[in-house]
């Protein structure tokens, strides 16, 4: 007990000098106090920084359901564009890319060229659209 009483001032001075306790000057700005506030662990470097017991993988993106925006009504004779009718309550913009999921596993890709509600014209970029196909966005 006597040893603890005698060593208490030495322990307190060591704690204050190591930076574990920082009283700060009351007139200093909070930014200056934060800069000075460094404890012993931050001076030596934290050995646990960058250590993760489990690997952190990026979250897998969630699938978003495609919205049906219209139905193919007419296909040009050279199959370069289609005329489609918009679904009620849905709007498309010029330049939008639309998809037609096909039964064979492939998809047709169309790009909206001109809009005259309730119809719009879309250029065929790839695939073979058919009359009655649903256009999805």
The largest β sheet comes out as: 6 strands, antiparallel
* Low-confidence region ranges: none
Distance, first to last CA: 79 Å
Count of alpha and pi helical runs: 3
What general form does the structure show? rod-shaped
Rg calc:
35 Å
* Helix/strand structural class: alpha+beta
CATH topology tier name of the largest domain = Thrombin, subunit H
CATH architecture descriptor of the largest domain: Beta Barrel
Provide the domain count.
2
Oligomer: single chain
Q: Kindly state the number of beta strands.
A: 6
Mean pLDDT: 77
What letter string, H or E per element, gives the SSE order?
Answer: HHHEEEEEE
Strand order of the largest sheet: 3-4-5-2-1-6
Level-1 CATH class name of the largest domain: Mainly Beta
Structural topology:
Blueprint: H1 2-18, H2 30-36, H3 40-44, E1 68-75, E2 81-86, E3 97-101, E4 107-116, E5 119-126, E6 134-136
Antiparallel strand pairs: 1-2, 1-6, 2-5, 3-4, 4-5
Keywords:
137 residues, alpha+beta, Thrombin, subunit H, 2 domains, 3 helices
Describe, in plain words, how this protein is organized in 3D.
- The chain is rod-shaped.
- The mean pLDDT is 77.
- The chain folds into two domains: 2-44, no CATH class; 68-136, Thrombin, subunit H (Beta Barrel), CATH 2.40.10.170.
- It has three helices and six strands.
- It has helices at 2-18, 30-36, 40-44; strands at residues 68-75, 81-86, 97-101, 107-116, 119-126, 134-136.
- With 137 residues, it is α+β, with helices and mostly antiparallel strands.
- The protein starts with a helix and ends with a strand.
- A hairpin with a 5-residue loop joins strand 3 and strand 4.
